[in-house]
What we know:
It holds the Pfam family His_Phos_1. It comes from Cylindrotheca closterium. This protein is α/β, with parallel strands linked by helices. It has helices spanning 4-25, 42-49, 54-63, 73-80, 100-109, 141-147, 171-187, 199-207; strands spanning 27-34, 93-96, 119-122, 192-197, 212-215, 234-241, 254-258. The protein has a single domain (26-37, 70-258), classed as 3-Layer(aba) Sandwich (Rossmann fold). It starts with a helix and ends with a strand.
Amino acid sequence: MVNLNRILLLIIAMSQRASLQVLACTSKRISIVRHGQAMHNPRAEVAKANGCSMEEFIAIMREDDCLDAPLTDLGKEQAKTVKIPTTKSNFDLVVSSSLSRALQTADAVCPPSIKNGSKRVCCEHFREVNGDLLNAKRRSRSELEKLFPSWDFSHLSTDEDSLWTPEMEEFPAVAERGYIGLDWLMKRPEESILLVAHGGILRYLMTIHPLISLQDERKSAEKPVEARFDNCEVRHYRLSWINSDNMEEKRRKIVMTEVDP
């Protein structure tokens, strides 16, 4: 007599394997932009470029700190001059951190007035290193909705910023947020994405997370690939899953492969 339960389990296993292989073959093109110069970092960025320590870097930012630091006039000009060598209408999705400087930059790089049908979604996972400094604390969702009416803020779970704490977030936790954000993007239907985020989270998610593999062939003695993004620097990648035969594996490795602009 045929064991129906065994057949059913076999069908389910084959279905799961097929689904995993589909996900493993999924890839998306992503253009990543760091926001322009913001109110809290003109002096700190100069000090960083001159080789100051992380402690000195943060101390200078603390002196210039302000809530949800917006772009400076220079930052606004930097954002307007970002060059993405593809028609902006090719972006299926525009994603930004929930901090104003990233949203301002995204609106300058890909203006909401362009009739391209791109979705514009704000995502908490891509906000800057959280805690301690007020420039990392976002405005309320209701205020952001008034300031940036073209954006979807439904992914913000609370009106006020419930994530910010007086203690600075540990860097591995920052990288984990970045992984969760990329995993979220990989599971979405859009294939061409513009992401605007911050120097800190971009650096840590690309360099220290064990499930993110950076395949970038650019070599520079002056600036290694893993270096922090400059203001309004753009880098282009293909995101893809690494295939796995492990049916129990729930967290797949994400490969970021450099592509031509």
